Amino acid sequence: MRIVYHLPLSPFSRKVRLALGEKKLAFELQIENVWQRRDEFLALNPAGQVPVLLDGEMAVSDSTAICEYLEEMYTDPTLIGDTPVVRAEARRLAFWFDLKFFGEVTANILDEKIMKRFHSGGEPDSERIRSGKDNIHYHLEYIGFLTERRNWLAGDNLTCADLAAVAHLSVIDYLGDVPWDEHIEAKSWYVRLKSRPSFQPLL
Fold first, then answer.
1. Would you say 68 and 42 are in contact if contact means Cβ atoms under 8 Å apart?
2. Among the listed residues 41, 26, 30, 40, the one whose alpha carbon sits nearest the alpha carbon of residue 6
């Protein structure tokens, strides 16, 4: 298997790498400069976006679709849950972090501190960075709320919800912008995830 990706700090590529690691599936990494819009890459994903998972002759794009594909093709261990209620909650929370957290935190901080260098080359927008830093508190409080009541975010077992959340938070943590000391419950959950073998290649 191969993961086609662009930047190591992409939370969506990280989510896929974590899912593969949890399922103990071997994979290789292949960097793609998406702005070049190579015909060979566009044949894999006409949207021109990464990540793309290559599994034999199968090409699956979008981190959510990739995780669903892995769940159906490689069923043990499950990362979506074993009941309809848990699966619904795991999907809801995964979307929460991939859409809401990304829009309110990741995009504001990562785009301004890192991505802008690759695109416009302009100066970081300090207001967007400040907004991301303000917004993260709400999400860390929510993680704390959930983990006070459950073993993992969606229930008793680790799911794609935890992988989506930690993928985004690990990027912001790398940039030094997570106020862990103000959110002890969320920090405890994060430390548990960082200690898992699937996380080690990201460090």
1. no
2. 30
Quick check: 50 and 4 in contact, CB under 8 A? Answer: yes
Least confidently predicted of 19-23, 111-115, 152-156:
111-115
CA–CA dist 22, 161 (Å, integer): 13
Residues near 20 by Cβ (< 8 Å), separated by ≥ 6? 1, 3, 27, 70, 198
Q: Which pair of tokens denotes residue 195?
A: 């200690």
Strands 2-5 and 28-31: parallel
Q: Which token pair is 130?
A: 């400040």
Query: Model pTM?
Result: 0.92
pLDDT digits (tens, 9 = 90+) for 163-173: 999 999 999 99
Alpha-carbon radius of gyration of the chain: 17
Cα separation of 175 and 173, whole Å?
5
